[in-house]
Specification:
Elements lengths: L3 E4 L8 E4 L2 E2 L23 H9 L1 H5 E5 L4 E5 L6
Antiparallel strand pairs: 1-2, 2-3, 4-5
């Protein structure tokens, strides 16, 4: 499973969505910082990443859950809040 989620590179003005260390907008490469799952926030995140994220059903249906011992993946329909 590839590492996917929203991350905020040190010199970036907004968070970007990363898949395997590369942002969906193509501006950032080799990012290895912390990632958060979830949907794009229109007023806050990179608009190009948010547009690509919302167009791709595979990315928007997957939730990455990080635990101290493992990273697991589940379908959004199975996750309860």
């Amino acid at each position: 499973m590839s590492a996917q989620g929203w991350g905020w590179p040190l010199r970036a003005s907004k968070p970007h969505f990363f898949s395997d260390g590369t942002s969906l907008c193509g501006k950032w490469d080799l990012y290895g910082g912390p990632l958060e799952s979830g949907r794009a926030r229109k007023e806050h995140d990179c608009q190009r990443c948010a547009k690509a994220f919302n167009k791709n059903p595979v990315l928007s249906d997957v939730v990455i859950v990080s635990t101290p011992t493992a990273v697991t993946c589940s379908q959004r329909s199975e996750v309860r809040h």
